[in-house]
From TrEMBL:
Gene3D superfamilies the record matches: 1.10.287.130, 3.30.450.40, Histidine kinase-like ATPase, C-terminal domain, PAS domain
Gene that this sequence comes from: rcaE
Coiled coil: 77-104, 282-309
Purpose: Photoreceptor which exists in two forms that are reversibly interconvertible by light: the R form that absorbs maximally in the red region of the spectrum and the FR form that absorbs maximally in the far-red region.
Positions that bind (2R,3E)-phycocyanobilin 2: 168, 177, 181, 183, 196, 198, 235
Domain Phytochrome chromophore attachment site, chain residue ranges per copy: 113-257
Name of protein: histidine kinase
Limits of the PAS domain: 299-369
UniProt binding sites for (2R,3E)-phycocyanobilin 1: 167, 177, 198, 211, 235
Alphabetic keyword roster: Coiled coil, Kinase, Membrane, Phosphoprotein, Transferase, Two-component regulatory system
Domain PAC stretches: 371-423
Domain (Histidine kinase): residue spans on this chain: 427-650
PANTHER family: HISTIDINE KINASE 1, TWO-COMPONENT HISTIDINE KINASE
SUPFAM superfamilies: ATPase domain of HSP90 chaperone/DNA topoisomerase II/histidine kinase, GAF domain-like, Homodimeric domain of signal transducing histidine kinase, PYP-like sensor domain (PAS domain)
Amino acid sequence: MNIAACDLLGLPRQQLKGQALSNFITAEFTRQPKSVGFPSGKSLMGELLVVSAAQTPREMEYTLTPNVLPHCHLLLLRDISQRRESMQAELRQQQQRVELFSEVTLKIRQSLQLKEILHTTVTEVQRILQADRVLIYHVLPDGTGKTISESVLPDYPTLMDLEFPQEVFPQEYQQLYAQGRVRAIADVHDPTAGLAECLVEFVDQFHIKAKLIVPIVQNLNANSQNQLWGLLIAHQCDSVRQWVDFELELMQQLADQISIALSQAQLLGRLEEVVAARTAELQEEINVRMQAEAALRQSEEQLRLITNALPVLIAYVDEQQQYRFNNQAYQDWLGQSPQKIYGSHLRQVWGEDCYQRMEVYVKTALSGQAVNYENDIVLRDGSWRAVDVTYIPHLDDENMVKGFFALSSDISDRKAIERMKDEFISIISHELRTPLTSLHSALKILATGRLGTLSTEGQQMLGIADDSTERLVRLVNNVLDLQRIESGKVIMECQACNAANLMIQAAEAMQAMAQQQEVTLVKQPQDISVWADADYILQALTNLLSNAIKFSSPGGTVWLTVEQEKNSSNNPKEVVFRVRDEGQGIPADQLERIFERFQQVDSSDSRKKGGTGLGLTICRKIIEQHNGRIWAESTPGCGSTFAFTLPTLEYANIQ
């Protein structure tokens, strides 16, 4: 044994020599008689429990290679206790975050009592973050402010109802926080923290060593700038503290919820009659949504548990596509013993049909490239299973491929749950559409003045409600469109289309929005024939133009262009549409992620601009069903370009 093994077992080498392995290790092979040998050339792998001389248990991964020397076996152990503990700790942290956020959100939805909401927020944040003090600071109209809700440990003074002088919170600070600035200060005395000297002196009175500050902002109407209402602040008083991303994200989400609560409280007096007529129906929708969220979380948890418990096929295949190692799971899944599979060709083990599906990936792995794909296999009982397969090439010292490692895991349950989730989203979206349509119509009638004239403030609140309803309707429609496309219910009826006509129609549809945003829309059409479904390509173009206009500054320009790619020996002839803007740009690490569901580059800015986070996902699905490609190019601060390809009419006829 090496030094690490001695440390693990808790005894020096002299005392360990001669002791039975079963005194420390719980595993099947330790209970076998000495006379029983292991299969030649085979290694055993798995997990076991090691208990040291001090009775300290540790979870380990092991690899047992028999007969490396005559009558001697090699046992390799790797400690996975810390990894397990880290995973459990992360799961607990995520669970705490979900519980806290759900509880605060539930209180916001069920109650309009602002004081109760704020008290719950500071209490739960202080408990989860283990901070010495958590408070909500309200900015008063005269530039001063005071603490209106607080949770603090008994060892430190309270700041409740204490008014802060304007000197410690000057006007320039307020403007920065109104723009969404977040401060995570690990040490208030650190010169790089940038705190004013008077502010440092002020916080020293209350023994504050570190602080985390998140603004609570309001947007009273669509045409006004964000207004700073207050701050959500966490203090560490006993020592300095490095704040982590989880804590920052949690505080930001709760600040958003507080902003929602403020809007609800302010609207209560002005819209009481309208709210009363809809309260019962909205409460039922909220309950259904909460139950749906709980059911979805439960399904995801079950999926994780099932996946963790599933066996995994592990094998090594040489360059002749013959098995040189496979684990016991092959026996359980296929009914073929490791001894029978050893030396067999892949075609013999999996059959002709399955081998044809995997052959191209096998050749790729033997060329030196790692491969991951999904496949369907038949088990020994005749049932089908969907599996996720990974091939990892094995290279020698001269970088020559000697074979590859094959890992296969069962994903049948995940596939079934994904189908259930899509069906669930479709049902809920359909159920939301009818009441949203009724609510939207009622708001439109109110806006006409047929039911009475509202005050100016009432008209503003009605406009906010109407905008929010339109956004919800767009979200439901986008979810339904995406679900229909992904489920295969949408069939693209492709025909010959003129690219210039498509561009002109899309530009005309978005011209009103461009004028409203004071953005110049420039189109450069060309008479090129493409093979496409005109309606869906128009939807993709208008989605991209809408995004470009929304994220352009007044006076900016958005370009819509098209060009025909030249032929090459490897790529078919394609037409490339491009939408270019002069907006703020997209970071390079987010260019791929923005095409995923509900992904937006800057959530705070996206809330101000509007959007559901599904438009680019729908565009990608539409283009992929046309056998095209879609991508984004951007330089932060210099605008973005979204491009997609469609096959030309000539290439479509060849195919």
